[in-house]
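Narrative summary of target 7.
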Amino acid sequence: MAAVSLKIDGKTVETAPGRSVMQAARDAGIGIPALCDHPALPPEGACRICLVEIEGQRAPQPACTFQVSAGLVVQTRSPHVVAARKLVLELLLSDHPLDCLTCESTGSCLLQDLAYEYDVKGDRWRGRHHDYPVDSSNPFIQVDRNKCIVCRRCVRACNSINGVEAISIFHRGFNASIGFGADGPMQDSPCEFCGSCVAVCPTGALRPKLAIGKGRPWQVKKVDTICSYCGVGCKLTLHVRDNRIIGADGAWDGPVNRGWTCVKGRFGHDYVRHPDRLTKPRVRHYLLHGGKKRRDGTGWDWVETDWDTALEVAARGLCQIRGKYGADSIGVLCSAKCLNEENYLMNKLARQVIGTNNIDHCARL
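Modeled conformation, tokenized:
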């Protein structure tokens, strides 16, 4: 189909038919602020921060839902638009905690960024503030509905991306707020704790519990890696401070996961520094002294050794079993935490060296 030509802030922009003004502006490098819009989610038009002036329209229109058409003339920074956005921000802050000094989202909060950009201090309107209890019952996600701006990002991520429909908006008007299941505890809902809602929340309403108090965004080093759990190969961005992982996000440029990940990938990183994690190979004590089991039951305790010794003990044991019972008495189980090349070598070891076809994979993908 032929491209649609329009003007945004005096710049001629060409885009595909059916796209929104927001998408066309984003493709052209023109920034339009938004709180409810997210590139990975369907448009909602809830926050009204992305209002723009469009020639021929009686009132400012939300850029995230207004579709482009040939000859459209758009103004994104006119005095009328700036005043409208500032009013919306003032109304949002009239019922929002102004605890930015201690809020976990300071430095990564879109509402805070926009208030700074538009010089909104939050003291023009003083409405009746909500006082919801902070829900910390979930082991992975902390929910503070006092900081929710009802942008519905979390609702769309849960419904449209994950397909679980565990989050909804309950009540109406001033009392509208997010809730889980039948407006009960998160763990009693269909929630799979994937953390997609946390990934798209623009404020501090939904936070990864394991990262609370561990560091501000500017104190954290971000490191891209591949998830170590299953064989899908999701790309993750680890948040590292003082050589410790304090959080993880799905990388939006990941070719496999496109920013999303499961509960293990997002929250299951504490094993790296877990005190029970093995850092050296271990063998049974009796295997280091002739390999015969003692009749008195001693020698079964695990002892640390070097890799050469551990591999020699394992090879000797496999040879003894194959010689006594045959190659088919041995099975090999590969791991999804290994590289494809490593699993391929295990396949060669099983079939060509040991001589067994009894080989399986824990992920079976």
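Residues 307-325 form the longest helix (19 residues).
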